[in-house]
Amino acid sequence: MINKENYYKTIRDAVHGNIIFDKKIFIDLINSVEFQRLHRISQLGGTFMAFPTANHTRFSHSIGTYCVTKKILDNIKNNTLSEYEQTVTLIAALLHDIGHGPFSHAFEYIHNIAHEKYSSAIILGDSEINKILNNYDSKLAIDIAKVIDKKHNNKIMVQLVSSQLDADRLDYLKRDSFFTSVPYSNIDLRWLIQNMEIVNEKIVYNYRALMNIEQYLLGRFNMFNAVYFHKSSNAFEVMISNVFKRVKELYKKEFNFKNNIKLIEPLIKSDKQLSVKEYISLNDYQVLTLIDRLTEEDDLILSQICKMISSRKLLKLVTKEEYDEFVKKCDNNNIDSKYYSYVLLNKVQAYKSHPIPHSESIVIKTKNGELKLIEDISSIVKILATIETKETVYYIYPEVFNIWKK
C-alpha cells in the first residue's frame, strides 16, 4: 500500500519555487536510475544553439509538471478524485516524459518510435521504476500507464496530465519562456488554478480566467514560431539525425570504425523498439561525446557533419529555389546532397476545437452558470481554432563544395 505516514521533502525550482513532496514514493521514483537519466536529456533539444541559456532538462520539467498537478489537485473546486486516484495522477505527471530520448523530440527524427511508447515500456517493463511501483501497490504501474496513454476511464486524471490545457503544457511554457528569456508565456498560474473546478466529470474554468487562457493559447502559438521552430534549433536537430543516418549506412556496409559505436549499435541495427536497458543507456551527453569522437573517422561525410555540429557550423535556412539549385549542383559534383540538406515541415495549431464531453476541449463556466466551449465566447480563440500553420522549410550547407575540393 502507498504509505500514509508523515513525509516532507523539498526541491527548490527556478520556476515554481519550493516543490513539496509529501509521499516517499515520489522521491523513490525520482531517485530511480531511469528518472535520474532525465538530468541528461535536454528539454528543448537543439534550442540552446539559438538561446544559450535554454539548457534546462526533462528532469526539471518533470518535477515542475508534478508541482503544477499538485497545486491543481490541492485547490480545484469540487475535487472528486480519491486519494489513490490523486496519487496515480501525480505519479503520471512525474513520469509522463520518462521515455524521452536524446535531445527530446529530435530523437524521433532518428528513431521513429514515439517517446510515449518508451514511457509505457519503462513503467510496465523491466525497470527500477516498475519495481518501486509494484513494491507500493501492484495496480499502480498499470493505472499510471493508462493515464499517460490516455486510456484511463477517469477522464479528469487524463485531462490533468494530457490535454490542450494540462499541467505538462502549463509547466513547459513557463519554464521554456523563463530559460529562453522569451516573454510570450508568462502565464498567471495561480489565477488560472483559482478559477478551475470539476463539473460533470469535466475540468471547467470560470469566465474570470478567460483572458488568462487566451494569453496561454497565444503564448503557445508564439513560442512555437519564435522558439520551438527556430531555424538554428531545427538545423542542429536535423544534423544530429544526419549523423545517425550516415553511421547506419556505413554500418550496413561493414565500415571499419575507428571508434567504438557499441552504445548505439542496437539503434542502427534495427528500426524496432529497443529494450528498456538499451534505451535508457542513451542520453545527450553520450551522443555529443560520440559525435566529437566521430570527427576522427576516415569517412569524409561522417567526419565533416560531426565537425560542423561541434563547431556550430549549421545548415542554413534558404528558399526552395536555392535548395533546388543546391541539390542540382551537388549532383553535378557527385556529392550526396542528403547529408548536407534537409526539408522539414513545421506545423503549429494553438487550439483544436472538440465537443464538450471530449477531454481535449476547454470549457468555460459563464456568469449565469452555463458551460460553453471557449471558442464560442472568445473571438480570439475562435480565430486560433481556424489557424493551422504549415510551413515547409529548406536547409543547405553551401560550404560543402569548398570541403570536397580539398
List the SSEs and their pairings.
Blueprint: E1 9-13, E2 17-21, H1 24-30, H2 33-36, H3 58-75, H4 83-95, H5 107-110, H6 115-124, H7 128-136, H8 140-148, H9 155-161, H10 167-180, H11 189-194, E3 196-199, E4 202-206, H12 210-228, H13 231-252, H14 265-269, H15 276-280, H16 284-294, H17 300-310, E5 316-318, H18 320-332, E6 341-348, E7 363-365, E8 371-373, H19 374-377, H20 379-386, E9 389-396, H21 400-405
Parallel strand pairs: 4-7
Antiparallel strand pairs: 1-2, 3-4, 5-9, 6-9, 7-8
Helix pairs in contact: 3-4, 3-10, 4-8, 4-9, 6-8, 10-12, 13-17, 16-17
Features:
406 residues; four-stranded mixed β-sheet; 9 strands; globular
What does this structure look like?
This protein is an alpha+beta fold and 406 residues long. Helix content is 50%, strand content 11%. It has 21 helices and 9 strands. It has helices spanning 24-30, 33-36, 58-75, 83-95, 107-110, 115-124, 128-136, 140-148, 155-161, 167-180, 189-194, 210-228, 231-252, 265-269, 276-280, 284-294, 300-310, 320-332, 374-377, 379-386, 400-405, and strands spanning 9-13, 17-21, 196-199, 202-206, 316-318, 341-348, 363-365, 371-373, 389-396. The strands form 3 sheets. A 4-stranded mixed β-sheet has the order 3-4-7-8. A 3-stranded antiparallel β-sheet has the order 5-9-6, with helices on both faces. A two-stranded antiparallel ribbon has the order 1-2. α4 (83-95) crosses α8 and α16 packs across α17 (300-310). It starts with 8 loop residues before the first strand and ends with a helix. The model has no long low-confidence stretch (mean pLDDT 93).
